[in-house]
Amino acid sequence: MKTVIITGAGTGIGAAAARLLGTSGWNVVLVGRRRDLLEAVAKEISSKAGKPLVLAEDLADPGAPKRIVEATLSTFGSLDALVNNAATIKVMPIEDYSLDVIDLHWAVNIRAPFLLTQAAVPHMRKSGGAIVNISSSSGTILRPGQSLYGMTKAALEYLTRSLAGELASAKIRVNALALGPVDTPIHQTWASDLEAAYKWLAEQVPLQRIARPDEIARWIELMVSSDSAWMTGACIPLDGGQALDIT
Ligand SMILES: NC(=O)c1ccc[n+]([C@@H]2O[C@H](COP(=O)([O-])OP(=O)(O)OC[C@H]3O[C@@H](n4cnc5c(N)ncnc54)[C@H](OP(=O)(O)O)[C@@H]3O)[C@@H](O)[C@H]2O)c1
């Protein structure tokens, strides 16, 4: 069986991807800070398929990526795919950002995917592998208050293309999905009125709605599977047309 690490797997898109992959023949490693949420997703998976590995780790800790890869190898013996999905977001005017908030975005949204990739690559070199970075339309389009988050997603897309080139000779593929709005708990971190926020978000999307996490999970499954063996270095907009920015 192939093994995949999914960060941010206790909620939203990461949980949907873990459920799908965990019940489609993959060993799944679930990473996040809140153990109870990870355990709940793991329980759902193990009621239908194999037992996932739950790792409660804070990705802001630079030691976490190495521990995650080591625990994966000692439990499942191999590593075939990495989904860098966890992220943090604070929406505010540039004058309001503290150094702590800036450092947290760097640590979780950029440094952790970088260090996880660094720790994973030597083990993926044996059999090739797939890395999927979860980006955002905010890495391309411009919205007030999203300078920091958008900057980290633009950097993640650069990292995707850069590593796709660097790792192609090792048959390791690196791709990204640039998501538009999806119905997940992330919006509770910045929206005081969720209903109004969802309406505002849907208005920015040419297809005029917000996606479901399971719609995104299917693309993650495709990108880690051999069905996408010919694709590397791609940053695919999966956003109902949001990045067309026609509003
Ligand atoms: N939903 C959208 O509209 C949307 C749009 C564009 C892009 N995205 C991207 O989609 C990805 C998944 O987000 P989501 O929408 O599914 O939101 P979510 O449900 O809030 O998921 C974010 C996950 O990241 C984990 N996380 C955050 N900080 C962490 C840390 N320091 N260490 C370990 N884990 C951490 C959280 O778990 P813990 O809090 O338990 O650690 C949580 O499970 C993110 O990369 C996000 O930028 C989402």
CATH class: Alpha Beta
CATH topology: Rossmann fold
Q: Give the cofactors and ligands.
A: NADP nicotinamide-adenine-dinucleotide phosphate
Helix percentage: 40-55%
In quaternary terms, these chains amount to single chain
Output the strand order for the largest sheet.
3-2-1-4-5-6-7
Radius of gyration: 17 Å
Secondary-structure-based class equals alpha/beta
What is the number of independent domains? 1
Percent of residues in beta strands: 15-25%
DSSP, total strands = 7
CATH homolog superfamily: NAD(P)-binding Rossmann-like Domain
Rough shape?
globular
**Order of SSEs:** EHEHEHEHEHEHHE
Task: Give the low-confidence spans.
Answer: none
What kind of sheet is the major sheet? 7 strands, parallel
Question: How would you concisely characterize the structure shown here?
Answer:
43% of the residues lie in helices and 17% in strands. The chain is α/β, with parallel strands linked by helices and 247 residues long. It has one domain: Rossmann fold, CATH 3.40.50.720.
Description of the structure:
With 247 residues, the protein is of the alpha/beta class. The protein has a single domain (2-236), classed as Rossmann fold (3-Layer(aba) Sandwich), CATH 3.40.50. It is built from seven helices and seven strands, in the order E-H-E-H-E-H-E-H-E-H-E-H-H-E. It has a seven-stranded parallel beta sheet with strand order 3-2-1-4-5-6-7, sandwiched between helices. Helix 2 links the parallel strand 2 and strand 3 (53-56). The protein is globular. It starts with a strand and ends in a 9-residue tail after the last strand. The model has no long low-confidence stretch (mean pLDDT 96). It binds NADP nicotinamide-adenine-dinucleotide phosphate. NADP nicotinamide-adenine-dinucleotide phosphate is lined by residues 7-8, 10-14, 32-34, 37, 58-60, 85-88, 108, 134, 136, 179, 181-182, 184-186. NADP nicotinamide-adenine-dinucleotide phosphate (NAP) is lined by residues 7-8, 10-14, 32-34, 37, 58-60, 85-88, 108, 134, 136, 179, 181-182, 184-186.
